[in-house]
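Fold it.
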Amino acid sequence: MTAEWNTAIGRLVGELDTDAFAGALVAALRTLADFDYSVTFAYRGEARPIDLHDDFPAGKRRVMVDIYQDGPYLLDPLYLACARRVQPDLYRLRSLAPDRFFQGEYFRSYYAQTGLSEEIGYIAALPGSVMVVVSLMRSSRHPAFSAKEFRQLRDAHPVVSSFVARHWRDLHQSFDATPGPGLSIIQSTIDSAFSSFGRSVLTRRERDVVEYVLKGHSSAAIGHILGIAPGTVRIHRKNIYTKLGINSQGELFAQFIRSLSDLRAV
């Protein structure tokens, strides 16, 4: 680590338990590698993700925070990694994404609007089943993080994770109390969102296919996960479109996002 990093960490210690902490953490990380934007989200179950800190300009914030919190987060590979309780670490989003993520509708309809060349995220586990992700982003004007930059940033994960856990140790109190064990709460959010979508017209298997299509899996990958042939997956997709009265994956994505509002209203 550099002398700049050490100095920045010294400042960060002084900002613990103050409103300046999150900005100081981002400033420290910028001594290791440059990036255009950052956002820190906290996730826990049925509550909307909490935007703990971001440095987006107003126009970009609408896409990266406001729209994201309304439902697209359920298809975000970083959120889904938190729901799976992956090992806390620094991850490239693309390393967590399904095989057709960048051709999928979440990417085309939502993520492409972000104008990013790459997003990486520190994942940290907090008490009360809260997961925090500190995302660092580069715009399409700049290349992705190099192997050297990623390695330097990853080496800082133990420090970042410890600071995050210390500063936001009581964050679980900010989320609405929900009965049941924390881990099952997190998974139930995802399960209920997908299992309820199109329930009146789609079979259980068709709803399974919808889930994996929206997450960005190919027909071959879906077939492998569900134990059916890729051709059968394609037949299911055709039937899904017919039953829902749609003609494209874009319309499927739009219907799913709209259904989330209905689910929360119940």
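The first strand starts at residue 37 and ends at 43.
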